[in-house]
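Summary of Year 1 activities. Much of the first year was spent building the evaluation harness for sequence design. The harness presents a backbone, in tokenized form, and records the residue chosen at every position. We chose the following record to illustrate the format because it has been used consistently in internal testing since the harness was completed.
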């Protein structure tokens, strides 16, 4: 059994600061995906399902710290963070429910 490649996704509204230096009103939801960049770099914030990283948001060593940081760049968070499995080789994200996973040695596995 191998560890899952996971990501977390949430929707936000109203980008602020470095994400919106002009201060324009941006309508609608903006999806953010937090996923592992590399063991050395840690976790980064991306547009869901793409390789486009929010370069204004500094990568962090753990996902929880980055999730907290992402909220600082938006007026409000409109959905909770949800965990997804990134399937191989397509990279398609599959929603994971808490009852489907187990933790062991700092990694996440399917039950």
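For this record, the design step produced the sequence shown next.
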């Amino acid at each position: 059994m191998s560890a899952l490649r996971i990501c977390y996704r949430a929707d936000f509204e109203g980008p602020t600061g470095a994400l919106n230096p002009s201060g324009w009103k941006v309508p609608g939801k903006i999806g953010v995906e937090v996923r592992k960049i590399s063991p050395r770099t840690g976790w980064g914030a991306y547009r869901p399902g793409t390789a486009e990283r929010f370069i204004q948001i500094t990568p962090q060593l753990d996902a929880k710290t980055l999730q907290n940081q992402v909220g600082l760049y938006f007026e409000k968070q409109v959905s909770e963070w949800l965990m997804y499995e990134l399937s191989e080789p397509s990279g398609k994200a599959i929603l994971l429910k808490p009852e489907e996973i187990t933790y062991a040695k700092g990694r996440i596995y399917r039950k």
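The chain has a mean pLDDT of 87. Quantitative recovery figures across the full test set are reported in Table 2.
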